[in-house]
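Two quick folds needed for the group meeting slides. Do the first one here.
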Amino acid sequence: MLRAKALILAAGQGTRLRPLTDDCPKPMVAINGQPLLEYLVGWLKGHRIDEVAINLHYRPQVITDYFGDGSAFGVKIIYSYEDPILGTAGAARKLTTLFADGPFVVVYGDVLTDLDLSDLLAAHERNRQRDPSTAATISLMSVANPTEVGLVDVAADGKIRRFVEKPRADEVFTDLANAGVMVIEPFLLESIPPDTFYDFGLHLFPQLLAEDLSLYGWILPHHAYCLDIGTLEKYEQAQVDWQRRQLEPSL
C-alpha cells in the first residue's frame, strides 16, 4: 500500500453551523463529545498516515492550542496559515514542497467518514500503474440531493469524464458526487496558480480534464459512512448516526 501524507482542509468559517462556529472553526465542532478534526486525525493514523498538514484561517488558535505539534495524537502536524483564504486547491498549492515526494491524501475537514482509506490508496496505485497520466483518484458517493451538489460523470472503467456543478433537475444524469476524500499526484500542483483562490471541483479538475489528464473515481461501498456536517441539520444527523453506528477511527 502507498505510504502517504495528508492535508486536512480546515480553514473555513462554517457560517451555516452558527452559533456552533461562533468561537471555533467548523472541523472543531464536537461529534459525540470529540472534535471532528480529532476523529479525522485518528482515522488517518489508523491507515498509517502519521504526517498531517492542516490549513488554517478562521480562529486558527483553537486548532493549534488543541493539537500542538500532534505528538500527543501519535502524528506530526504541519500548519499552513492562510490570509486571505486560498480555497481547496490553493491550500494544497501552498504546500507543494511538503507533498513533492509522492501521492498525498486530501480530506475535507467537514466530512465525517469511516471509508476504507487503505482501499482508496490501493485503487489510486492501480490507476497510476495502468495509466501514467493519472492525476487523482476521487472518492465518490451516492447523494439524495443531486441538484444541490456537484455531480461526477464516470465511465465504466472508473475514469471521470466531466463535472457538473448543481445541475437542474432535468440535467441530472447520476447521483454520484465528490465524497470529500481524494488521492492527489504532486505534479498536478504545478497547474494551480500560486497565492490565488483556487478550488478543486470548480477550477482544477475541469482544467485537468481539458488538458487530457486522467482523473478516476472510487465509489464508496454501501457499508461505508460519509456525511458532510456543514449544516445544523447534518450536524444533528451526525450525532444520531454516531450513536447508531458507534463510529470509531481504526487505531
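Then this one, please, same format:
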Amino acid sequence: MRALKRLVAILLILGVASPAWAAPPSTETITNQDMTLTVIDTPFCEPGATHEIALTFNEVTHVTEFDDGRVHFTFTQTGTFDAIPLEPGGQAATGHFTVWGGFNNNGKTVNGTFTFNANGTLEDGTRVSTHLVDHFNVTPSGSEFFFTRCHE
C-alpha cells in the first residue's frame, strides 16, 4: 500500500511539474508570395561586371522557439531573376533561383547554413548555373568558423 501511495505521489508531482519541462515550442510559419527585391551584385561565382538584379520570388519561413531559449529558423525563397549589367562588357541574364537558409542557437553554439542555386541564360544564349554554400559556426568558447564554396 505504501508503494502505491508513493507511486501516486510521484505521478501527481510529475503531472504538476510536467507542463514546465514538457511545454511545446512556439512555432510560426510565414508565407509570402510575389515578393520583389532589387540588388546590385555580380551574378554567378566568377568575378565579373556588376549587375542590377531584379528578383521576383515566393518565400516560406519557419521559426521554432523553445522556452529554454533555443531557436531554430529556416527559410526558402524561389523565383526568377533578371540581371542587367551596369558596366560595359557585361551580359544581361535571366533565369530561376532558389535560396535556402537554416539557423540554430542552443545557448552554447550558433550555426547557420545558406545555399543559393541559380540557372539561367546569358543574352548570347550561353547557359549558366551556379551553386553556392555559406556556413558559419560559433562554438561555446567563442571561436568562429566560416566557409563559402561556389561553383558553376
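Slide caption for protein two: DSSP finds one helix and seven strands in the chain.
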